């Protein structure tokens, strides 16, 4: 139990918010705790050569693979000490909205294979896929908390909508002090990709068009709000907006086309 409290910034300990976060952590984590008092998410590393095959291109990488001490994959879509107060506020807002089932927090793991069987919405996408234990999801590729993509997604199934509470870290810098546009494209793609997967199963991005309206300061918190607008045969049309946490600044607007795949194995 102590290890879970340590995930929450100490300044929050007496606040109502900390109660919410703490309660949520307790309810979402029923995994057994380590007996030695160490954090459940203490990281253990090993190194080994693996082969990554993508679109016919083969390359050898040496990667480090991360596991929680309990042996369970770490869910990165839960609060950690790098999350700002603004990030926690938005997270708690959507956790509240999830209590009646309208919204659903999407767990997030470092490896695609760790997601298999854990989230029924995405089971169709993951079943039958060839997934290596040693590759990493791009947005979860950094070991240190807070340096890259800190985010949590919430799905609204009836609205075919996904929101991502997102805090870009310093390794995503483009212009000094601001997030690189490519990182913004990546979080948009992943957010609407989640929507597209929900409605259509296996999909790939065919087109993504982004208007960058206002730069995103590093360390700020934004809400990436994407939804499916319509499906025509195999084509899934989506749109997305990126707003500042206070809803006052529109950072980016996007439209996208995803194509439903019959099978990834043919490529
Ligand atoms: C997000 C997390 C949620 C949580 C999930 C939990 C666990 C999940 C674990 C892992 C999930 C991983 C990632 C999350 C998901 C998404 C985020 C990343 C998504 C990407 O980052 S993915 C990489 C970039 N992506 C590519 O690397 C695609 C390269 N590309 C191709 O592989 C082909 O190009 C393809 C397959 C797209 C289509 O090929 P194809 O042969 O199947 O289909 P075809 O060409 O026949 O087109 C059929 C109809 O679409 C029209 N059409 C096609 N392309 C168009 C275009 N660009 N503009 C306008 N119309 C277009 C045609 O005109 C025709 O239209 P019509 O039927 O009317 O004639």
UniProtKB/TrEMBL annotation:
Belongs to the THEM4/THEM5 thioesterase family. It catalyses: hexadecanoyl-CoA + H2O = hexadecanoate + CoA + H(+); (9Z)-octadecenoyl-CoA + H2O = (9Z)-octadecenoate + CoA + H(+); tetradecanoyl-CoA + H2O = tetradecanoate + CoA + H(+); (5Z,8Z,11Z,14Z)-eicosatetraenoyl-CoA + H2O = (5Z,8Z,11Z,14Z)-eicosatetraenoate + CoA + H(+). Keywords: Apoptosis, Cell membrane, Cell projection, Cytoplasm, Fatty acid metabolism, Hydrolase, Lipid metabolism, Membrane, Mitochondrion, Mitochondrion inner membrane, Transit peptide. The keyword Cytoplasm applies. GO terms for cellular component: cytosol; mitochondrial inner membrane; mitochondrial intermembrane space; ruffle membrane. InterPro entries: HotDog_dom_sf (IPR029069), THEM4/THEM5_acyl-CoA_thioest (IPR052365), Thioestr_dom (IPR006683). Residues 177-249 form the Thioesterase domain. Its main location: membrane. Gene3D superfamilies: Hotdog Thioesterase. It is a peripheral membrane protein. The gene is THEM4. One of its GO terms (biological process) is negative regulation of phosphatidylinositol 3-kinase/protein kinase B signal transduction. The keyword Cytoplasm applies. It is found in: Cell projection, Ruffle membrane; Cytoplasm; Mitochondrion inner membrane; Mitochondrion intermembrane space. Its EC number is 3.1.2.2. One of its GO terms (molecular function) is long-chain fatty acyl-CoA hydrolase activity. It comes from the Eukaryota. It is an enzyme of class 3 (hydrolase). This is Acyl-coenzyme A thioesterase THEM4.
């Amino acid at each position: 139990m102590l290890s879970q409290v340590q995930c929450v910034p100490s300044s929050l300990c007496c606040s109502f918010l900390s109660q919410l976060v703490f309660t949520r952590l307790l309810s979402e984590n029923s995994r057994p705790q380590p007996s030695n008092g160490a954090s459940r998410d203490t990281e253990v590393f090993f190194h080994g050569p693996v082969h990554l095959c993508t679109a016919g291109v083969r390359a050898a990488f040496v990667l480090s693979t991360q596991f929680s001490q309990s042996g369970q994959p770490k869910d990165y879509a839960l609060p950690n000490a790098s999350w700002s107060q603004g990030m926690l506020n938005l997270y708690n807002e959507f956790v509240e909205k999830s209590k009646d089932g309208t919204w659903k927090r999407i767990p997030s793991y470092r490896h695609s294979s760790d997601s298999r069987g854990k989230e029924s919405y995405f089971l169709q996408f993951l079943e039958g896929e060839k997934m290596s234990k040693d590759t990493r999801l791009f947005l979860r590729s950094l070991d240190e908390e807070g340096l890259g993509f800190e985010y949590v997604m919430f799905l609204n199934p009836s609205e075919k909508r996904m929101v991502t509470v997102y805090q870009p870290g310093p390794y995503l810098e483009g212009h000094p002090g601001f997030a690189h546009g490519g990182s913004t494209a990546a979080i948009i793609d992943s957010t609407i990709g989640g929507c597209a997967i929900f409605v259509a199963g296996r999909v790939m991005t065919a087109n993504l068009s982004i208007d960058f309206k206002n730069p995103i300061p590093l360390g700020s918190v934004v809400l990436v709000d994407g939804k499916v607008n319509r499906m025509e045969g195999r084509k899934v049309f989506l749109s997305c907006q990126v707003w500042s946490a206070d809803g006052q600044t529109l950072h980016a607007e996007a439209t996208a086309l995803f194509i439903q795949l019959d099978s990834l194995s043919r490529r």
